[in-house]
């Protein structure tokens, strides 16, 4: 059984199959996209992911998107979701549709799971173009700083975007409890 699969030019790599070179290249790309020091040299922000989607140009990683498969609650209703995080394109490759291609692949992957929704925290236009809708639910999550849990937050989600994957409807009035950190 192959540990890596390719969707066109997009590689899907389970977290535990990342090589040390890929880990370093992803960390460098995230520094390029989000600014040096934001990820402290890691290939993830607050928590490791389940699956990475990457695009390469030769040996260089020029596009990255992380997916998590998690459970959460909307009030008392427990549900599964795919969290989308750390979307990045190398600065000299932006505007070529790389993030849009990765997003389509991520949505296709998510449709093949038991997840009810895809969830992200962001505002880029490519998300609404792909069917994500902005919500401002009350949000409960674990605050993390430098990979340490520091508090439990109760706040309004300002950049929450949700895409239904099936027949479940999003309850915009419910409190969203992520049962852990924002990705």
TrEMBL record:
- Domain of life, source organism: Bacteria
Sequence intervals crossing the membrane: none
* InterPro entries, sorted: Acyl_CoA_acyltransferase, GNAT_dom
Q: Which controlled-vocabulary keywords does the entry list?
A: Plasmid, Transferase
Q: Which Pfam families match?
A: Acetyltransf_9 (PF13527)
Segments forming domain N-acetyltransferase: 13-166
User: Which GO molecular function, any one, fits this protein according to its record?
Assistant: acyltransferase activity, transferring groups other than amino-acyl groups
Work out whether the entry's keyword set contains Transferase.
yes
Keyword ATP-binding in annotation: no
PROSITE patterns reported in the protein's UniProt record:
GNAT
Name of the molecule in the record: GNAT family N-acetyltransferase
**Taxonomic lineage from the root:** Bacteria, Pseudomonadati, Pseudomonadota, Alphaproteobacteria, Rhodobacterales
